[in-house]
Amino acid sequence: MTLTFYKYQGTGNDFVIIDNREQILSKNNTKLFAKLCDRKFGIGADGLMLLELPENQEDDFTMVYFNADGNESSMCGNGGRCLVAFAAFLGVVKHKATFTAIDGKHHAEIKNDLVYLQMQNVSEIEKHDSYLFLDTGSPHHVAMVEGLSDFDVFTKGRKIRNGAPYFESGSNVNFVEKKNGNHFAVRTYERGVEDETLSCGTGVTAVALSMHATQLTDKQEVIIHTLGGELKVTFKQTANGYEDIYLIGPAKQVFKGEIVC
Ligand SMILES: N[C@H](CCC[C@H](N)C(=O)O)C(=O)O
């Protein structure tokens, strides 16, 4: 079969996207999705997304996300932003979008060539001695480090991802260094990619909320510098935790292609 695909990247987190509204692919194609994400034997990507028809009246489409290992995964913030850009490219939406992903409903808007993606509310942030843990649609371990640019993210991230208390189910691991004011630098070891990625949207969101929750910033707008570029997270602290959370940044189509599989 010849499959048409699109390659997108959001601050260097890269994805294969397939328009699956005609249901050409079933969701249990783990081996195929892993092969398509393979950087030597396939197209190469951190993850793969299927754009599918909406399952209710309010939605414009449905998002299905798979990590590079081919397994369906939890929410992908950068992927969600790229899928909104893809839906606009197809003409499925104009500048605003409403879609359902594995963690629920999302609203998004494209403004000044940036995608604003509303993330799920966060009601709980676990504060431990040397790290924080929270779920922003995907699970995230957040730890402050010094010398981030020389930090061994792969070795240290892999150890945390596989160790207690995460073990098999794992967590994404974010290492953070404060730059100044409301600017922070982040590097992320991503579960399901099992490597460092150039940025992680749910991770950047987790870091921004963590920095506010630990008073490392009093701003409710945080700028995160990743290896793949700059992302902005805005939010409101409420009696229930954090709400009105937006992940904001670019999402670009890199190329369209066909692959025999
Ligand atoms: N690897 C993550 C999902 C993708 C998250 C990331 N690509 C993002 O932009 O949020 C996990 O298995 O929890």
TrEMBL record:
What Gene Ontology terms for biological process does this UniProt record contain?
lysine biosynthetic process via diaminopimelate
**Catalytic residues, chain numbering:** 76, 200
Entry's EC annotation = 5.1.1.7
Q: Which reaction does it catalyse?
A: (2S,6S)-2,6-diaminopimelate = meso-2,6-diaminopimelate
Which terms are listed as keywords in the entry?
Answer: Amino-acid biosynthesis, Cytoplasm, Isomerase, Lysine biosynthesis
Q: Could you tell me which InterPro entries the record lists for this protein? A: DAP_epimerase_AS (IPR018510), DAP_epimerase_DapF (IPR001653)
Give binding positions for substrate.
13, 67, 77-78, 172, 190-191, 201-202
Q: Where is this site: Could be important to modulate the pK values of the two catalytic cysteine residues?
A: 140, 190
**An MF annotation (GO) of this entry:** diaminopimelate epimerase activity
Q: What does this protein do?
A: Catalyzes the stereoinversion of LL-2,6-diaminopimelate (L,L-DAP) to meso-diaminopimelate (meso-DAP), a precursor of L-lysine and an essential component of the bacterial peptidoglycan.
HAMAP family xrefs? DAP_epimerase
Name of this chain's protein = Diaminopimelate epimerase
Q: What is the lineage of its organism?
A: Bacteria, Pseudomonadati, Bacteroidota, Flavobacteriia, Flavobacteriales
